[in-house]
Amino acid sequence: MSVTNSPLEFLARQYDNVVKYDADGNPSIFVRFPKMKSSDLDSSLPDHTHPAFIINGEEQDEILLGKYAACSLTGTGSDGGTLYSLPNMPPSYSRSADQFLAQIRAFGGGVSGMTVADRGFLLLLAQKNGWNPGGNSDYGNYYADGSRWQVGKSITVGTKRGYKGWLYEAIQAHTSSMELAPDVSPLYWKRLKQIGGAIAYPNIVETSGDNIGLHPLTLNGSGPLTWYLDGTAGSVCDIVGNQYEQDYGYRIVGNELQIIENNNAASPDADLSDTSAAWKAILPNASNDGFTLVAPGTAGTLHWTWANNKITLDTVVPTYDDEYRGTNFKDLAVNSTNLPYIPYIVRELGLFPTQGSQMAGYYYMQFTEEERFPRRGGYYSNGSHIGLCYVHCGSARSAAAWGYGARPRSLA
After folding, report:
1. Cβ-proximal residues to 13 (8 Å cutoff; 6+ apart), any chain
2. pTM of the predicted model, to two decimals?
3. Domain ranges of the chain
4. Which is deepest, 6, 118, 232, 309, by most CB within 10 Å?
5. What CATH number labels 138-218?
């Protein structure tokens, strides 16, 4: 069978997706997004090309974002080979941010890791169109579609629980146990509908506590259409939940916001290391919502602080106590005395809400002097906190876990 007539190519053509191949002929699937202005995404933003489409000073007619989370062809979670964007594969895990990036870039052909500018664009596009995708936030299910089944609970007739991607209804009262799990007890449970994805790793399972027997991760693209960005099978999927995804080009150091200009982080040869000279802090203008990118540590740059029980955008260095704190994204605050104008770049990048935004997601960070690397979207047990706007900034770039993943993106 020729490559152009492969089932994967046929499927991609149905949705105007793009299939790219590495040097060994192995594929990855990408979703194309044409260039847009920031003002077309939100009228409060400037009338210029959104930064996701500007790489090393050159405007891109389109960007290609991985339809699926990064995965290995072997189907194992933590091997050292090239990572791809493919359906019905288990998402890779247990890699640091730098390891994910190296293995994604090994594909070649302009492929790198998805960036903060890419996600900022998706966030604004979703907000403009009223999209608010769900995802795996409750051990294989979406929290809003039914509470997860657990052992040792009193179950009454009519109780509904999510289990292994399906919603079940109890037809007999009982105390839940592994022997009476919904998928093996038709005398106690009736299966209603799919609300989640297929188990990614049968060997990764909770072995104690209320969640015993539950599997955290789902296969790429195995969930319902509500887990796709726009609710159709042609768009990116699992962008919310399942795993925290690395977003390259943004970090906090001493709670100072640091970014890499425009979407330069998307360049396959961009230096994203902790000592890279490309990292810049954001110095706000005093008289408008403009800004200047300056050397980190410059006085008066944007910092995250904690005030009135909310994460707050400010221009002062916060108190470092190594505590973890969080706020709903839509409720992020600003110290208007120190910062009368919010630089538009933080809204373009999806780091601060536009006016009136109700987009879902929780903003969680550690107040420390050390570098913290963002993971986005939420993961398999975040419940109602997941969303496109979710930010987890409480771990080092070296952190690796089941719940940490990444996503390829590519130059057109």
Report:
1. none
2. 0.94
3. 15-133+228-412, 138-218
4. 118
5. 2.10.10.20
